[in-house]
Amino acid sequence: MSHNLLKGKKGIIFGALDEKSIAWKTALRCVEQGAEIVLTNAPIALRMGEINKLAEQCKAPVIPADVTNMDDLKNLFTKSMEHFGGQVDFVLHSVGMSLNVRKGKRYTDLDYDFFHKTLDISALSLHRVLQTAFGLNAISEWGSVVALTYIAAQRVFPDYNDMADAKSLLESITRSFGYQYGIKNKVRINTVSQSPTRTTAGSGVKGFDGFISYAEKMSPLGNASGEQCADYCVTLFSDLTKMVTMQNLFHDGGFSFTGVSAAVVEQMEK
Ligand SMILES: NC(=O)c1ccc[n+]([C@@H]2O[C@H](COP(=O)([O-])OP(=O)(O)OC[C@H]3O[C@@H](n4cnc5c(N)ncnc54)[C@H](O)[C@@H]3O)[C@@H](O)[C@H]2O)c1
Questions:
Q1: Number of folded domains in the chain?
Q2: pLDDT tens-digit profile of 99-141?
Q3: Which domain holds residue 14?
Q4: ∠119-158-169 over CA atoms, to 5°?
Q5: Candidate from 19, 21, 154 with most ligand 1 atoms within 8 A of CB, to mutate
Q6: Is residue 194 one of the residues assigned to a domain?
Q7: Cα separation of 253 and 194, whole Å?
Q8: I need a surface site. Which of 17, 66, 131, 144 has the fewest CB within 10 A?
Q9: What are the backbone angles phi and psi of residue 219, rounded to the nearest 5°?
């Protein structure tokens, strides 16, 4: 159902890989709510070709950009502004990758080249995106940037591995840049800390099935779905949340503030 919450707004969506991606679902919701969007992903991900289906549905151009490459990001913002005929109102950063997770390295035996890549792709990339936009004055006043994160930034989830450190850094950059961009241009920057969700990135984490059903049992409302995450992002891009910035916002059915649930106690007593 459309309330035209994003009517007249223009946004860039990073990270739609396939139909399961949180970014994919968010792109659809943004367009449903009246926004115009540009889609972007790493050139290697675009080769899969899946994104063209989404681009067609959203009537959106696809502009390749590796988030670790400053020239790519500059080109992305410049071309997006040309396409829109002006500044961008919102940005979704829905990007994450760890080669240590992918290759099954333990946290106590990390490969440091991989670790650098994890930090660059999953955390510094937000700084790169923001610094590029800041330099080009590419985001409009009261614009909104949302990056996706996970509660492993605050609490230990052993198999989340070096992604936990990347998410802590991502959330810190959100606060630090949120201050600077707020002062400069009233641009707001927040992270959404999402429930475990079955996507390509999510399913790469060891023991993901156990993880997802534990979270489901622990959360009074159950796990938040990708579609519900997309809805939440829409509210953050809308004018209804203008004074929210520099926050890490839990979108997890209550998981983050539940000590233990009756369902988990019952399971332990078995
Ligand atoms: N799935 C979950 O359980 C979950 C929970 C909380 C937070 N998140 C976060 O949500 C975000 C989106 O992940 P998802 O679960 O939708 O999985 P996904 O695999 O669909 O999306 C990850 C995206 O990152 C992109 N990417 C990787 N390297 C890149 C690079 N160098 N340049 C540009 N893009 C690159 C991939 O191509 C992909 O589109 C990530 O930040 C993830 O950590 C996911």
A1: 1
A2: 999 999 999 999 999 999 999 999 999 999 999 999 999 999 9
A3: 10-269
A4: 25
A5: 21
A6: yes
A7: 9
A8: 131
A9: -95, 120
